[in-house]
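Hi Q.,

Before the meeting this afternoon, I wanted you to have the NAP prediction in hand. No need to reply - just skim if you have a minute. The sequence and ligand are here:
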Amino acid sequence: MPASATPSAQSPAPDALPALGPRFDGETVVITGGTDGVGAELALQLRDRGARVVIIGRSAAKAQGLIARSDAQSTTGSLEARTVDFSLMRSVEQTVDALADDLERIDVLVQAVGVFLSHVEHTREGIELDFAVSYLARFVFLERAAARGLVGPHTRLISLAATAPTTPSFARVEFDDLDAVTARTGFAGHAAAQTANDLLVASAPARYGVAALGYGPGNVRTGILRAQPWWFRTLVGLFPKRDPRAVAAQLVGLLTDPYWSASTPGWAGRKGRFGIALFMADARRQRAAIVASEQLHRRAVSVALGSA
Ligand SMILES: NC(=O)c1ccc[n+]([C@@H]2O[C@H](COP(=O)([O-])OP(=O)(O)OC[C@H]3O[C@@H](n4cnc5c(N)ncnc54)[C@H](OP(=O)(O)O)[C@@H]3O)[C@@H](O)[C@H]2O)c1
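Predicted structure with the ligand bound:
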């Protein structure tokens, strides 16, 4: 159900975001996973800098709360929401089609949608839930948005994942064998989603014509661990956490740095830009991930249509 907020005519609230810095007037920004965490903070900051921002998430209550907060602090830009379940690939396709009716183009696409599960759960379309939400939905979104002309050479894509300068052992996931891909659940499903996201960023300039940035935020103070057992949350809590507002501010800076390229994917984390991990640069791996994603997308949609 779409919800929207137009620029308020009132003066900014005392906690208004700083006015100085880059502007995004006239730009259309879509943030998947924009109702909470890093995506929500980025939505507030980009709207405050003049952008038309569309957030996508599941919770209508969170979306309305964010729009109210944004209206209270911003006198520029606009913020609207689409609430939809991105675990279902048919819903992702329908959302992109609805966006294509509303928007001329997407100038900035931030893919922040994700969950972090350790239990085993599958969607109604038969895909492991973490892989479906944290990765496959992003792939399907990009495929459909490119087919509908929403994304292309005019688009900067940012994808949030566990992106790092070297690929950690848990993320050395291969996609050649579809049975092995679909057998991964729990932490393995989450790790596969993180790796697949980076491989998608590596493929994105050639496949969609976009300028793409894979971004690893590090450990951020959000609700991403809400489905984890208490001991895991306690363990992760021992490490320093970044403020999501600071992460969003860094992303705003990265969106205006001079290094965007429509031919070469970029990579960045807490300390700034870095070179591509050799694992992700492998064209055979990138191709295998795309082929597996296409097969899973087809499978999910055929299950959805079969049960419609
Ligand atoms: N936080 C970290 O430490 C960290 C570290 C590395 C990578 N990341 C990655 O960064 C991204 C953003 O993380 P975050 O920490 O900001 O997480 P978050 O606060 O939990 O936000 C996740 C977003 O995804 C949306 N979402 C989840 N399931 C959905 C579904 N089925 N359909 C539609 N939307 C759904 C949520 O919407 P609702 O709330 O409305 O359901 C929310 O907007 C994630 O992909 C995460 O894996 C985070």
